Amino acid sequence: MARTHAGELLLSRHPISRAARGAVAVAALASVASCAGETSTPPTIPATSGNHAPTTPGHQTARPSGSSKPTEAACQLPNASLAASKRFNGSVALSSLVGDAVRLGAHDTNGDCYDSFVIALEGSSSPSGLPGFNARYVEGPIKADPSDQTVQVRGKYFLQITVGAAMGASIPHRLSSAAVPGVEAALTENFEGVTTWTLGLDERQPFTVSEIAGTAADPGERLVVNIQR
């Protein structure tokens, strides 16, 4: 007796006893029942998205270079706050320095992730000394001083930096940069030796203000506002 691929029984041409036939029949029925009770479980395939390859437990796929976004902890700016002032007592101390240039910049290297606004000052700080400054967040609408006219500044939050130094005639009244899409700067006061810049921001973030002294090669002073992302 032989079994086909389908599990059917073929009788041999040679006679066999009734007991043998019964034993064969019982074995066949048991085999068929066993096959009927078995189930086939398809292999589990991890879900994928786009071109990402499935991962196995304990294996992490490296993030492509340049695609990572700094975490909130990595973007902490040391000593940052929501207000900063120096040589300020209700009004900023005046200086003979004059604003020569303003710049916006983005910093995304060596773990840094902040935007900067720089006021370059030219001239000698003697005998008047460095200008005072007062930086703080204000509510809109933004008004120009002394005209009191409304100035449209893009952004949801407004950081104002008042400096005791006049701006030169070549200074633009509005500044933006494709490299710093979340910041727009507008000159909202330049009167009697006092300047106010208003920065329009997408988020209310802490900041720092630092003074960088000039050198022999670059004698101008710089006031640098770094804004955490």
How would you characterize the overall build of this protein?
The protein has 229 residues and is mainly β. It folds into 2 domains: 2-37, no CATH class; 83-228, Immunoglobulin-like (Sandwich), CATH 2.60.40. The chain contains 1 helix and 15 strands; from the N terminus they run E-E-H-E-E-E-E-E-E-E-E-E-E-E-E-E.
Question: What labels would you give this structure?
Answer:
disordered N terminus; about 230 residues; six-stranded antiparallel beta sheet; mainly beta; five-stranded mixed beta sheet; Immunoglobulin-like
Please count the helical segments. Answer: 1
Number of domains: 2
Major sheet strand order: 3-6-9-13-12-11
N-to-C terminal Cα separation, in Å? 82 Å
Beta-strand proportion:
35-45%
Radius of gyration: 38 Å
Largest β sheet strand count, sense and barrel closure: 6 strands, antiparallel
CATH classification class of the largest domain: Mainly Beta
Give the CA-based shape.
Answer: globular
Average residue pLDDT: 77
